[in-house]
Amino acid sequence: MSDTRRRVKVYTLNEERQWDDRGTGHVSSTYVERLKGMSLLVRAESDGSLLLESKINPNTAYQKQQDTLIVWSEAENYDLALSFQEKAGCDEIWEKICQVQGKDPSVEVTQDLIDESEEERFEEMPETTHLIDLPTCELNKLEEIADLVTSVLSSPIRREKLALALENEGYIKKLLQLFQLCENLENTEGLHHLYEIIRGILFLNKATLFEVMFSDECIMDVVGCLEYDPALAQPKRHREFLTKTAKFKEVIPITDSELRQKIHQTYRVQYIQDIILPTPSVFEENFLSTLTSFIFFNKVEIVSMLQEDEKFLSEVFAQLTDEATDDDKRRELVNFFKEFCAFSQTLQPQNRDTFFKTLAKLGILPALEIVMGMDDLQVRSAATDIFSYLVEFSPSMVREFVMQEAQQSDDDILLINVVIEQMICDTDPELGGAVQLMGLLRTLIDPENMLATANKTEKSEFLNFFYNHCMHVLTAPLLANTSEDKSDKDVVVGSNKSNTICPDNYQTAQLLALILELLTFCVEHHTYHIKNYIMNKDLLRRVLVLMNSKHTFLALCALRFMRRIIGLKDEFYNRYITKGNLFEPVINALLDNGTRYNLLNSAVIELFEFIRVEDIKSLTAHIVENFYKALESIEYVQTFKGLKTKYEQEKDRQSQKLNSVPSILRSNRFRRDARTLEDDEEMWFNEDEEEEGEAVVPPVEKSKSEDDFPDSYEKFMETKKAKESEDKENLPKRTSAGGFKFTFSHSASATNGANSTNSKSVAAQTSPASSNGSSSKNANLTAAVTATKGSLVGLVDYPDDEEEDEEEETSPRKRPRLGS
Question: Residue spans with biased composition (Polar residues) (predicted)?
Fold first, then answer.
């Protein structure tokens, strides 16, 4: 079966008149008893199954095309084709078919394809085995010629024969002379016939005829004929456009006359295809395939000729980067490059590789860096298009350039930072350019297309570079729009808190949504780098400020960012979220959304449902202990009840585990039994908490994973009670309507005994115990100044209160320590 001569692909024609590939196999011709005749069989090369079983019918018209294709119709609407790997195999099977039908194998069609109506119409015409005899090229014969040309289009054989006749007799040039005569005589009827004739000749789809029609001496007359469409009241003025309106701009004079001629010809043929000829119907769509190929190969030739002329390209680059070049000239140079890169897409992969390497060698990237930073919007837009071709072709080439550049330049002028700044400063209200640039950045930072070689890994090098030099530029608008007047590092207990800024401007909101989309991509793909960045910048807290935005799409982007983080099920992230009490803004958004059943509602509930289904213990405990009172009224989904159940089951499990451990081990930190080292670490964390817990992380905000329960439960409860006397917490304040409300604020305000809550807080009557207002946990999380220490405590696990009634009174999350 490994005989490549007989290797074929089987195709069938679908309803859209497109060929569907039915599989690859090996063809044979054998007598099939069931079909009572010689048949073509194709067995799949993968598993030997039968792909095709077709009886060679004596009356079926089989066609051989391009030496390796055999095409035929089995039924009225069922066309089949065999595409052979080798010509020899095609010839062999063709002989078998001709043998069955009693035909000479030298023919290309075994039966005449003309249908009955055509036969009637052409009964006076000569035998179809000879070339078609063309009427003499005279004015009074134009109608006859037009009828002949349009009538052969439905028959592939007759089209071939007409094309040969036109070619042999130099007929096209004679027709174009008649066109000039008709135009001079203003013979409208003749001009309408010539339109039909020239259009019909184009549809013959013959490259040899195109060569004649699109030559310098003929092309304008061909365009002229196509102006006189009988369907139009007035002829179109295509020639006027091509000669007067369309200007050929030479950014640098092109000395090669052949190259100039090719460029002119390609433009005009493209114009004929795109503007003059009507969009082909479903039956005509293959009529112009050769025209498409003609344009394609012209473009390949133009790119190759320009590429070989290094002097020309060097001159273009020199002018592009020269400060003395005026703006108009520079715009033309950039547009030339854009078109040049667009043409290059027609090249084969190997040639395209050479093309972009030539551009890189000549310095396309430093040149782009200059033009992308210019004020001219058109120039920037064209430069972005060129940059997108380069990134699409080789992200590694661009990455390598920016890393080398970083060693010599400031961060401000790095190419990637120029790109980010263009994205941030896009003036388009719809941010079209920013969306395109964001896509390019995403490609550049995607580890999937980074190479790992023996001596270096591009991934680690580039990501280190990106997070050190570029990430701060990307997140700047996000941090600026979620910032407060003071810096986090200078939080002093009792300082006045300013209201959080929230971007209500639609364009800003769109930009922040784009940045969040990119950061969400980073969370999924850059585990280590982005984790450090989020922790160091307290980024999630800043992002969740956007849950207050009046633009729901932005609030959803912020939620999606958090959802991706939780989706990683990483305990580092979980501790960060619980210690920072970062579920609060999400729950506030859910409560503020009320009973509205919308995307925000569904997205928030899906987040909690994920935590329940995946049984993320630390988050479950944190949510139930801190927020269950506010959420228990939500009964249209079972999510929150389910979380409570999971929490209680886990609590029971832990109690049983504690009861089963001998008391001597429970109080002995230095035991060495079968339990894991993690428990020792847990004890160490617990003791640390007693010493340093005053600093940043309030002891009630802790995580509850299975391993995070303390060994000494009794000892922990004593510690807990001691802390309660020091710290009091306002749990969700009960509103006048009897519901609950959390306040999500960022810094303490103890000077006047009240704090300004964020825009989502509602006025609520509070009990005397909470009349001081709720204060921020941000001071606790990031850099609170306390009486004992100012140092930061690492993000570690803290044990939690198991008793819900105590939890209602005591959680210092909302009140800064006032020990000082």
Answer: 744-763
Q: Which residues neighbour 796 within 8 Å (Cβ) at sequence distance 6 or greater?
A: 575, 685, 688, 689
Tokens of 782: 């990031």
> Using CA atoms, how far apart are residues 562 and 227, in angstroms rounded to an integer?
61
Helices (H), 394-538: 395-406, 415-424, 432-444, 458-469, 471-481, 506-525, 527-537
Quote the CA–CA distance of 419 and 721 in Å, as a whole number.
55
Q: What is the DSSP string of 131-156?
A: PPPPPPS-GGGHHHHHHHHHHHTT-H
Residue 605 CA to chain centroid, in angstroms? 28
- Among 508, 481, 487, 486, residue whose Cα is nearest residue 498: 486
Query: What are 531's strand-pairing partners?
Result: none
Q: Would you say the C-alpha torsion 196, 201, 202, 203 has a positive or negative sign?
A: positive
531 or 803: which leads in pLDDT:
531
Closest Cα partner for 540 from 591, 585, 484? 585
Sign of CA dihedral 333, 336, 341, 344: negative
String of b and e for 778-797 (b: at least 16 CB within 10 Å)?
bbbbbbbbbeeeeeebebbb
Residue 514's pLDDT is 94
Contact 59, 52 (CB under 8 A): no
DSSP SS3 for 774? coil
Say whether pLDDT at 781 is over 70: no
Task: Read off the pLDDT of each residue in 60-66 and give the average, rounded to a whole number.
Answer: 83
Per the CB < 8 A criterion, the answer to whether 193 and 183 are in contact is: no
The first and second tokens of residue 523, run together, are 């969370």
Q: What span, in angstroms and rounded, lies between the C-alpha atoms of 618 and 200? A: 76
Looking at residue 738, its amino acid is: G
Query: Confidence band (pLDDT; 50, 70, 90) for 497?
Result: very low
Collapsed DSSP state (helix, strand, coil) of residue 708: helix
User: Which residue in this structure is represented by tokens 């009046």?
Assistant: 550
Rounded Cα–Cα distance for residues 503 and 478 (Å): 10
Average pLDDT of the residues of the chain: 76
Tell me the pTM.
0.59
